[in-house]
């Protein structure tokens, strides 16, 4: 059976939530979205392809920065509207800010504190 | 400063994605949504309150099953439209199916395989 049949793309208007975890550490790297086409491309290529809502197109993660994500495993939730991708994060950073994870701010006594690990300088990678 | 100011509720029409991790193991337990009111309630009570899209109301996780989630930490992503909650999962199961995690199906050679840990019988908890 086509594995896409278990995914409920309709509920979210054609997309599902996709959570990428670092396969080595289990850390949550980022959250984005996938549509059916991006899920198929991900299966075909073994590298994560999201659907960019802001750009309204397929987004091969790392296409600009080189920080692609190689798929190690894929899990789906009970109601089929979210997937967890365990990945090898090339370059060691998932975030456009150059941090390892997009979730670099933590709430400490009512304030967001930056606890992120800076891996690259975004100006060097994306230009200023 | 109000920590809610860093959260971009507008982009998602009043809600953000909320990912709950088991604080002890780092396992992804579930994915749901929060609006501003549910985030405030979560901060006030120390127990996770989501926004239920299907029921269109606040959802104090575990209100029926007793399997509440005590907040251990909260992280926010770079663009402020997703949060990661590390929680103590009361009862050891987050999923309405009685599994420990909602992400109990894994893709193995093109098929979804149930690898979940059954913690409770949903018929006993929710009725038939």
Structural description of this entry:
The structure is a homodimer of 128-residue chains. By secondary structure, chain A is mainly beta. Helices cover 12% and strands 36% of the residues of chain A. Chain A contains 2 helices and 8 strands, in the order ββαββββββα. The first copy, chain A, has helices at 36-45, 122-126; strands at residues 16-22, 28-34, 49-52, 57-60, 69-76, 82-89, 105-108, 111-114. A 4-stranded mixed β-sheet of chain A has the order 2-1-6-5, covered by helices on one side. In chain A, strands 3-4 form a two-stranded antiparallel sheet. The A-B interface holds A 1, 3, 6, 17, 19, 21, 26-28, 30-31, 73-79, 82, 84, 95-97, 99, 102-107, 110-112 and B 1, 3, 6, 17, 19, 21, 26-28, 30-31, 73-79, 82, 84, 95-97, 99, 102-107, 110-112. Strand 7 (105-108) of chain A pairs antiparallel with strand 5 (69-76) of chain B.
Quick structural summary:
The structure is a homodimer of 128-residue chains. Chain A is mainly beta. The first copy, chain A, has helices at 36-45, 122-126, and strands at residues 16-22, 28-34, 49-52, 57-60, 69-76, 82-89, 105-108, 111-114.
